[in-house]
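hey can u check if this looks right to u? its 266 residues, i copy pasted from the old doc so theres a chance i mangled smth
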Amino acid sequence: MLLSAGAARALDCGGDTRPCRIASGEYHIAVPDGWQGGPAVIFLHGYGGTGAKVIRNTDLVKRFTGRGYAVIAPTALPWRDGKPADWALRDGWLTYPRNDVRFIRDVLADAVARATLDPDRVLLTGFSRGGSMVWEVACLTPSLVRGYAPIAGGFWLPATGDCAGPVNMLHIHGFADKVVPLEGRRIENPEFGSFTQADIWQGLKLWRSENGCPSNPASHEVTSDFWRKRWGCDTGSLELVLHGGGHRLPKGWAGIVLDWFEGLGN
């Protein structure tokens, strides 16, 4: 995804070949043609991915830049030398090399300065382990961004029983997901033992508590592609979108996320 000529002059990094570097790591960024500043989407890749791979996914990027959003794609670090890149989650694994909640905060601050992002119109989304990192950031620093839209990822055990405050969250998940099942699963690792993905339903119960939502959703919507629940909450907002597929980004997800985000009153 190429930056426009004007934006390329304003930025000293961008696209998939020139990462933006900060003290704690790097990220990639793509902006719409004629970019003069505005809203942004931060997308967190899955296990073993990179920010460069996200930006090379032109279909994904265009779905956001086509609606006027910059796309920011941070890169995780290998969880140990010679191992794949992964996000630092509270999941019972060994110590990670970086505090990724702080890293994502620093990425956002750097991107605001470099690309004149509107800090009040930022959406954090991510897939799989990236989706789990979205839950982590939302729990620990709920006011960092305007909205959180994780896909196919949630808490891992030991899961927190309390978060720092209410959030605007839209969670997307596949009903038939076997990699991150809605009910959670135990993973045996011959080198380090067992690790457990937490139950997504239990995680949503925590978010209902944080947002002051009733147990029963305020509304349901069923289409040929999605089942959607919306809770009426005292603070923040909470929605769940299920699709019939497995561990993947469902068709139409970007539009659903942006429509929801823009409906928050940006």
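Confidence is low (pLDDT under 50) at residues 1-9.
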